[in-house]
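Worked example 2:
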Amino acid sequence: MDEVTKVFTQIPEFLEYLGPECAAAIANAAPNDELDLSPKFPFLCSRRYADLIKKAAEPEALLREILPTRDELASVPGFVDDPVGDLPAGKADCVIQKYDRRALIVSTATCGARCRFCFRKNYPFQNIPDVARQVSDWLDTHSDIWEVILSGGDPLMLGPGEFRDLVEAIAMHSSVTTLRIHTRLPVMRPDVVMQHFELLRELPARFECVLVSHVDHPDELDEQSQMVFGQLRFSGWTLLNQSVLLKGVNNNAGTLEKLSRRLFEQGVLPYYLHQLDHANGVAHFEVSDETAKELIKEIRTRLPGYLVPKLVREIAGEKSKTPIL
């Protein structure tokens, strides 16, 4: 594996790469007695994200997103393995349908990183053989579906051939007019996004195309993410972002304001600010609703309305996201 595409799966190797200049940030984000070197939800971080940490203004915030700690072992009432009701909404091995006339495809179990607050960290992931055929077969009997959402894992971690096969299988169904992709890769693995760019450039001629990025902190955005977003926007994609409100990462008005402004500079509109999904192992990231509401009120005084994300929670069994404010 070349150095550009390198990923870290071993925490000591990752920490060694960050070097002594990040030692203080590492100690604050995950002191040695709190770091979990053998986490149940495996560690994974790209070299790209490690480089973002090394040049970040707030490296501790980015480190908290990806370093496993013993806090993840705590059993907290109300925190469960399937907090958003994915499993009851499963309609096929890779299809989840919670919302009317829309379907979500769990296209792969593979991610560009393992975010410690992931709401699917306890999900029984497996890579589905021939996902394109399975999706096509399901859509054959569901001609009311007008939007297909590609999720995962990260759908752009599919190989170029697999990704194209999946998109072509969806395109065979004329009822599907909107294709939405949820991805963390513009900040985690922009090199992988660019492997798909020939197809991504073509798709706005065939669908209404929406890409929802997942960026939680302004230090995750740089010239590489700007290149990816710029080319997508030029090709006709609608670009939105959703963030998760995370204690120790972005739970202050200054960070959220800077995030919205930096996203907009890169052609991306803030979309949702999610309250934490109550998955087992993530309770230490939780920010109270009262604090979340105050943060939104504060950034409303600092930003125009189109840069203020909607504060929402996903509740299992509900037919839409639930606004908090």
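Residues 289-302 form the longest helix (14 residues). The chain has two domains: 7-73, 90-323.
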